[in-house]
Amino acid sequence: MLTRTTTGQSERHATLAVNVGGVIVGGGAPIVVQSMTNTDTADAEGTAQQIAALARAGSEIVRITVDRDEAAKAVPAIRERLLRMGVRVPIVGDFHYNGHTLLTDYPACAEALDKYRINPGNVGFKDKKDRQFSAIIDLALKHNKPVRIGVNWGSLDQALLTIPARAVMHEAIVQSALLSAERAEELGMSADRIVISAKVSAVQDLIAVYTLLASRCRYALHLGLTEAGMGSKGIVASSAAMGILLQAGIGDTIRYSLTPEPGGDRTLEVQAAQELLQTMGLRTFMPIVAACPGCGRTTSTVFQELARDVQTMIRERMPEWKARYPGVEGLNLAVMGCIVNGPGESKHADIGISLPGTGENPTAPVFIDGKKAMTLRGPDIAKDFKAIVEDYIEKRYGARAAE
Ligand code: SF4
């Protein structure tokens, strides 16, 4: 029988705790949000800026590509720039094909990184594969860094790829990860320095692969659907796959591999990861805004604008609120479009507003801690409501800070 937590998920699958630059992954620690840059790592300034943006958005670990000499050379400079900006997020180096060479030739890069990601499908073949894999593990041991053994089905171990059927493909992916982890242990890496991932691009495959992995090992598990895609498709597919696994207690750190729109904001992948964990009741990052979807009763855009404004205000104000008001991330807000569900939903929130629907009086009752506190009217409803939210936060969480 599955044991369930108070929030409804299965108990977390027991894994070993891995310290990644001061952030604990696994061992029952809070599920870690991570992300990856898409800048050219050789561009130290651009990469440092993007890492800083991802960290400020809430990414607790950031991975960067280290693919050639220029990139490896830039890593210490990136670290320095981040320190100057006051950003201390752990940085993971993503290596394929030539990681053993780059980490050997650029010891300052090897030192500046907090973890190395190795793809066992991309470290050469046959004898060469073992030599190159061993070399990276030796370097990780020398620099005292943990590793992620990150299998990706697109670059699955060539020797295992000859097996066709789907269930067998799952087995091949799992074996690729576990055999590589065992080899790393034989080479002297302790199990609590190893994180495992086995990414595939289809939801059902991801669930099957990680369920198998969790049943067979105690390594900390990094979850993510690879090549998830753009926009809502990428978010929905990743959320479906990771949500089911997290509900089963599987997963110690998560990443959304979203394809950004041209010129799009990379921090969307951090936002999606935080929202998945928060809406599942696994972690709390920032106040939640419950908003109704709107319908034929909301004929103006006032309702959508207010919901968007409140959400934007929270994201913008959160860094300051978090520093000044401990516990503010647990605040619940409601922005509702009309009288049908508005007062009811608003009463369940810490602060809620029920806007007037079509044909209703042009007034907006505001509910605070379940009671009607005031009624807003006129052209400044949005401004007034945001001021009420600020005031409530100051009174409720500012008092706690003073305790
Ligand atoms: S609360 Fe009102 S406006 Fe919102 S979805 Fe329900 S009926 Fe429509």
SSE topology sketch:
Layout: E1 18-20, E2 23-25, E3 32-36, H1 44-57, E4 61-65, H2 69-84, E5 91-95, H3 99-105, H4 107-112, E6 115-118, H5 126-142, E7 147-152, H6 166-186, E8 194-199, H7 203-216, E9 220-223, E10 229-230, H8 231-247, E11 253-254, E12 258-259, H9 268-279, E13 288-291, H10 302-324, E14 332-336, H11 342-348, E15 351-354, E16 363-368, E17 371-377, H12 381-402
Parallel strand pairs: 3-4, 3-11, 4-5, 5-6, 6-7, 7-8, 8-9, 9-11, 10-12, 13-14, 14-15
Antiparallel strand pairs: 1-2, 15-16, 16-17
Helix pairs in contact: 1-2, 3-5, 6-7, 7-8, 10-12
Structure description:
This protein is of the alpha/beta class. The chain has twelve helices and 17 strands. The strands form four sheets. It has an eight-stranded parallel β-barrel with strand order 3-4-5-6-7-8-9-11, surrounded by five helices. A hairpin with an 8-residue loop joins strand 15 and strand 16 (363-368). Helix 10 (302-324) runs parallel beside helix 12 (381-402). The chain is elongated. It starts with 17 loop residues before the first strand and ends with a helix. The relative contact order is 0.09. The model has no long low-confidence stretch (mean pLDDT 91). Bound molecules: iron/sulfur cluster. Residues 292-295, 297-298, 336-338, 340-342, 357 line the site of iron/sulfur cluster.
